[in-house]
Amino acid sequence: MKGPPISFRSIEAAQVEEIHRRQNGDCREELSGWLDYDLPWAPMSLDQVKEKIEEQRKQKRTALLAVFAESGEFVGLAFHTTDWDPLVPFVNVLIWPEHRRKGCGAEAARRLLAASFDEGPALAVNAYVPEANAAGVAFAERLGLRVAGRERRAHMRGGTYSDGLHFDMVRREYLAAKGGH
Q1: 62: β partners
Q2: What's the distance, CA 181 to chain centroid?
Q3: C-beta of residue 167 within 8 angstroms of C-beta of residue 140
Q4: How far is CA 25 from the centre of its chain?
Q5: 1 found inside a domain
Q6: In a domain, 106, yes or no
Q7: At 95, is the secondary structure helix, strand, or coil?
């Protein structure tokens, strides 16, 4: 089950401007989390976004990637890091709202899983989704990730708390889903 052709590319100036536009618009909350900006309700300047992206790039064993559709359109971001534990990478995918449910996010996530398990020594892969993000939770589950832990009252939206869900997939689950051992 392969998704549409996508490619990962380095984030360049044109993508930084789009990320800035999205952080100040339809993806403010998601990008604030990605950029480690603790005020998801607050807009960021272009210089702040550039600085946060550079901070991410300077992390050891971390890839912050632009996701492009086959058409050449910049459709979102992918993140992979083994900074905390080389054997348990953390992955994340963010696709812009108008490109969701078209397979680009699933293909990007499958590639991150393959990079972790097929090209790297990963024993497990981790991801995190706010429980209030029902589409994100369903996406993680469709990929074969399982809830591995809960961070209680980790998020607030509209005055209501929700939990954060830690997902993982271990190597044997990945291989079984792939038709391997």
Answers
A1: 81
A2: 27
A3: yes
A4: 18
A5: no
A6: yes
A7: strand
Residue that is written with structure tokens 């950029």 in the block: 35
Q: Which two tokens stand for residue 148?
A: 């591995």
Q: Residue 133: phi, psi to the nearest 5?
A: -90, 80
Give, as one character, the DSSP assignment of residue 25: T
Domain residues for the domain of 172 are 6-178
Model's pTM, two decimal places? 0.91
Give the model confidence (pLDDT) of 111-129 as tens digits.
999 999 999 999 999 999 9
Give the per-residue SS3 of 48-81.
Answer: HHHHHHHHHHHCCCEEEEEEEECCCCEEEEEEEE
CA distances from 44 to 18, 38, 87, 110, 156 (A): 13, 11, 34, 31, 20
What digits encode the pLDDT tens for the residues 58-113?
A: 999 999 999 999 999 999 999 999 988 889 999 999 999 999 999 999 999 999 99
- Which CATH number does the domain housing residue 90 bear? 3.40.630.30
Residue 58 in any domain: the answer is yes
Q: d(Cα 56, Cα 68) in Å, to the nearest integer?
A: 20
Count up the domains in the chain and report the number: 1
Asked if 130 and 164 count as a contact pair (C-beta separation under 8 A), the reply is yes
Helix (H) or strand (E) holding 145, with range, is: none
Separation between Cα atoms, residue 78 and residue 76, nearest integer Å:
7
Q: How far apart are CA 61 and CA 79, in angstroms?
A: 11
Give dist(CA 6, CA 160) in Å, integer: 36
